[in-house]
Structure formats: structure tokens, C-alpha cells
Write a structure and sequence with these properties.
Structural class: alpha/beta
Helix content: 40-55%
CATH topology: Rossmann fold
Order of helices and strands: EHEHEHEHEH
Low-confidence stretches: none
Number of strands: 5
Radius of gyration: 13 Å
Strand content: 15-25%
């Protein structure tokens, strides 16, 4: 069965591009954003979340904190997918909050490498 990845991002064109790339690599993909994200993730029950940090409404940091508070969702690995510098996010959140980091603009190989590192082969 294909691993399920949920993309949480408000950049529609980017989400479609990433979704197509991931599906082309054998993943099942769902998408959501903002205030609806935690509810959707609860329903999707993905194996991994690609999470943007800067979004209107509920931003990625607030979503991440909500996920970590929910016992049913707290163990889902999260890869931060953002233009924010990795060092500043780790300093702000702490290293235990995310399983990986992919910077925007993103390198497709780097993204797939991060996903494989977190999910395994």
C-alpha cells in the first residue's frame, strides 16, 4: 500500500506541482491548508505531513502545536516545507518538533531524499 503524504500549504500552484511529483513517485497525496488543516489531517491519517510555516489564518507553527497536543496525531512525522531559514525555526521550536526540513524554492531530489529518510524505503 502506498504511503500517504498530506501537503499543508496555501500556494496552490506549488501544491499541485509537488502533488504530481509525489504521486509520480508512488505516494498517495492529500492537501489542505490553514484553519481546516488539523481536522483534515485527523481524517486523512497520513504517514507524513509536508507543512508550510507561513500561511494566512492558522500558520504552520500553530498547526504543528495543535498536532503535537493531539495523541492521535502527535506521532505523525512532519517535514517543514518553507522559505523560513532552518536555523531560526530550530531555534524557535527546538529540534524535536520536526522530522525534517525542505527549503523553498525546493529541490525535488532533496524533497524525495527527506521523505525517504523519514518514511524509509
Amino acid at each position: 500500500m502506498a504511503k500517504h503524504i498530506t501537503i499543508v500549504d496555501d500556494e496552490v500552484d506549488l501544491v499541485e506541482t509537488v502533488k504530481l511529483r509525489l504521486e509520480g513517485n508512488g505516494f498517495q497525496v492529500s492537501t489542505t491548508m490553514g484553519d481546516q488543516a488539523v481536522k483534515d489531517i485527523s481524517g486523512f491519517k497520513p504517514d507524513l505531513i509536508l507543512l508550510d510555516v507561513i500561511m494566512p489564518g492558522m500558520d504552520g507553527i500553530a498547526i504543528l502545536k495543535e498536532l503535537k497536543r493531539d495523541a492521535n496525531l502527535s506521532k505523525i512525522p512532519v517535514i517543514l516545507f518553507t522559505a523560513k531559514p532552518k536555523a531560526s525555526l530550530i531555534e524557535f521550536l527546538g529540534p524535536e518538533w520536526a522530522s525534517g526540513y525542505v527549503s523553498k524554492p525546493y529541490d525535488p531530489k532533496e524533497m524525495l531524499d527527506q521523505i525517504q529518510k523519514v518514511l524509509g524505503p
